[in-house]
Amino acid sequence: RAAFAPGTRAPLLVGACSCTEQGRTPGPLGRAGQRDDLDVFLLLGDTSYNDGCETIAEYRTQWAANLSSPEYRALRAATSVLATWDDHEVTNNFNPETIDAAARQTYFEALPLRRDADAPDRLWKSLTWGDTAEFFVLDARGERQPSTRGVLNDPNIYLSPEQLDWLKAALKASTATFKVIMNSTPVTDFGFSVFTGDAWVSYPRQREALLSYIEDEAIEGVLWISGDHHFASVGRVTGPLQLGPGKGAWEVLAGPGAQSANPAYLALQANPSRWPIATGTNNYATFAFDPATREVRVGFVNGSGQEFAARTLTL
Fold it and tell me: How does residue 97 score in pLDDT terms, banded at 50, 70 and 90?
C-alpha cells in the first residue's frame, strides 16, 4: 500500500527482519507474508548470503536462490519493502574500501527499491509515512573505512561524511512524530564483544558525535532498528554506568529470520532492567506506531506465527 499523504498522523504497522541464509527455511517471513495489515516491511541486512561470489552471474544465482523461496515470495506479495544491506550481501565482513561493484549492481537488481536519479548507486535515503514516521535508511557498510576505526583515529569513518551530515540535518528537519533510523549493525554498546570489529562501537568518535548531536538538538521520537547480531532485543543504546551519550535512546534488534542464534543474548537476559527483551528465537518484529500517544509497541513473532514477546516504548 502507498505511504500516508503529507500531513497525515495515523497509526502505522511495520514489520522487520534480518539475517536469512540460503538453505534455512525463513519461517517467520512466511508468517509475515500471511498478514494483510503490514504497511511496510524492513529488511535490515544479510537478506541474502552471497559469500564467495565474484561475478555478476554468481551473485544473481544466490539472490535468486534466496528470494524464490515461498516465504520471500509471500512476503513481497503481501507488502512493500524498505531495505539496507549488511556484509553478506557481498561477503562476510567485507572491506568497502575494496568493494566489488558486482555486489552493488545485483543488490539493486534483486530488491524493489527506488534509486536516486542523481546518485543511483547510493543506498542511504529517507522516506516519510505522512507525519507519523520518517525512515532514515542508512548504508552502514558500503561507505565505511575500516582503516579509520579505533579510538585513536580521528575521524572515524563509519558513515561517509556526506551521509553523516545528511542524517544529522534530516533528523533535525523532520516533522514526523517518529524518526526511525534503519541500521544494519547495531549502535548499542553491549559492553562485551559481539561482532565488535564491525559495529558502531569500533568507530567511537563518530558514534559519540551522532548520539551527542541527537541529544544536544533535543530531537524527539528517535528509534534505532537494527539486525546483524543473530539475536533479537529491546534495550538502551548506552548503559547507565557507561560513558558517553545514548542513555535515553532505545534500539531494537529484529531477526534473525533464518539463522542460528548467537548465544550472546543470554548475557543480555541477565540485565533485564536494560534489556527487557533478549532472545535467540528466529523471528520477525512488528512495530505499531501511534502518533497520538507517541508510543510504539514492539512485538516478536516466531516461525509458528506466535507473538512470544512484546514491549511498549514511549518516545
Answer: confident
Residue type, 217: E
Residues with Cβ within 8 Å of 264's Cβ and at least 6 positions away in sequence, in order, are 190, 192, 194, 229, 231
The per-residue pLDDT for range 202-226, each reduced to its tens digit, is 999 999 999 999 999 999 999 999 9
Contact 119, 166 (CB under 8 A): no
- Angle at CA 250, nearest 5°, toward 248 and 251? 145
Q: How far is CA 179 from CA 97, 122, 185, 219, in A?
A: 30, 21, 18, 9
Whether residue 141 contacts residue 148, with contact meaning beta carbons closer than 8 Å, is answered with no
Contact 286, 299 (CB under 8 A): yes
- The residue written with cell numbers 541477565 in the block is 270
Residues 171-183 have pLDDT tens digits of 999 999 999 999 9
Which residue matches cell numbers 533485564? 272
pLDDT beyond 90 at 154: no
Spatial contact of 310 and 297, defined as CB atoms under 8 Å apart: yes
* Per-residue pLDDT reduced to its tens digit, 159-168: 999 999 999 9
pTM comes to 0.97
- C-alpha cell of residue 269: 537476559
Q: How is the beta sheet containing 222-226 ordered, strand by strand? A: 125-129, 133-137, 178-182, 222-226, 250-253, 232-236, 277-279
CA distance 156 to 152: 9
**283 and 254 in contact (C-beta within 8 Å)?**
yes
CB atoms within 10 A of CB 297: 14
Q: What percent of the chain has pLDDT over 70?
A: 98
Burial of 136 (0-12, 13-18, 19+ CB in 10 A): buried
* DSSP 8-class letter at 202: G
Contacts of residue 62, Cβ cutoff 8 Å, sequence gap at least 6 = 22, 48, 49, 50, 53
Residues recorded for the chain: 315
